[in-house]
Structures are given as C-alpha cells and as structure tokens.
Write a structure and sequence with these properties.
Blueprint (H helix, E strand, L loop, with lengths): L1 H27 L6 H33 L1 H7 L2 H23 L6 H33 L2 H10 L17 H18 L1
Helix pairs in contact: 1-2, 1-5, 2-3, 2-4, 2-5, 2-6, 3-5, 4-5
C-alpha cells in the first residue's frame, strides 16, 4: 500500500537524519566528518525525496482534498512545507560546499543550518505520520488508491531497495555499520 511505503520511507529518512546528526557532532568537535556520506545524504534528499517521495504525498493530498476537504485543511499547505524543506536542504548543501571549499565560515552557522534541516524534516514527518497519513487512510477509497498508484512512478529507492545506485554505496555501508554497532551495543 502507498501509505505503508511512504511510512517506510520516513523510517529510512530518519536513519539518514540520525547519521547526519552524528556527522554534525564530529564537525562540532572540530574533527573532520565523513563528507562523502554527508554529500550522499544531500544527494539522496535531492534525488529521491524531492523527486519521488514528496510528489507521491502530494498526489495523496490531492485525493484527500477531494474526499475530505476539512481533513485536508487541517493538514495545512503540504506543498509549501515541501518547498520549505527543499530550501533548508539547499542551505545545507551550500554550507557543506562552502566548508569543503575552505571558505571562511563560523562553525555555529554551519551547525545551525544543518540542525534546522534535521529538526524541520523530523517535525514535518511527524505531522504527516500523526495527522496526514491517518486522515488519508480513513477518507480515501480503493479507487482513489488505484488512481494514485497508476500516477506514481515505479522508481525504486536508490538507497534502501535491492538496487543501490553507486553514488549511495558508501552511505549504505555506513548505515549498515551503524546498525551493526547499535545491535552490538544492545547485546
């Protein structure tokens, strides 16, 4: 089901935000974070989240607006929220590019930009998970889901599917290593 896939993508995005947060902690200590991983996370958001994930959510919202305008109104302007997220992502990409170019930057400014992105994404996903997805699940009919499914591009996730794009291989290895470390700590 579409909502299950979108929810799973939110879980995957949370993994990336946690990694970004860990790399930011390394940066804040004055050490060099893994910029290849950071750039891969930025690229993932640019490639998958902006081009596939958000447009699918917007298709669901369009159907929800038709079926239950009141519920859709409570969700707010999802398209604008996605735009704000894209703007925050652009600021992160720009800050990282400037750091890598050895431009004069305050660490606090880089930290603020990246933390703003992480916080904004988490807040956005939480609102969708708590309000938007349940409202869509309740209001939409089988026909609506079929129409959404026919309009959705069947592109596989370039990081979290069985087909991993080369540019995300390092990030995937990093995620797996972190998951193994977390599992070892739990034992």
């Amino acid at each position: 089901m579409i909502l299950e896939r979108l929810s799973k993508e939110h879980s995957n995005i949370e993994k990336l935000l946690a990694i970004l947060e860990r790399e930011l902690e390394v940066f804040d200590r004055g050490d060099r974070p893994d910029y290849e991983v950071i750039r891969a996370i930025i690229s993932y958001f640019e490639v998958y989240t902006e081009v596939y994930h958000h447009p699918q959510e917007e298709l669901v919202l369009a159907k929800l607006t038709t079926r239950d305008p009141g519920a859709a109104a409570k969700i707010g302007d999802l398209v604008q929220e996605h735009r704000k997220g894209a703007e925050r992502l652009y600021r992160v990409a720009h800050a990282v590019k400037n750091v890598l170019a050895d431009r004069e930057l305050l660490r606090e400014n880089v930290d603020t930009v990246i933390r703003d992105f992480i916080t904004g994404e988490r807040r956005h996903m939480m609102a969708e998970d708590r309000h938007f997805f349940p409202a869509a699940h309740k209001a939409l009919k089988l026909q609506d889901w079929a129409e959404i499914a026919s309009a959705v591009t069947a592109r596989k996730d370039p990081l979290f599917s069985d087909i991993i794009e080369d540019r995300f291989a390092v990030l995937r290895e990093h995620i797996l290593r972190l998951e193994q470390e977390a599992e070892a700590e739990r034992r």
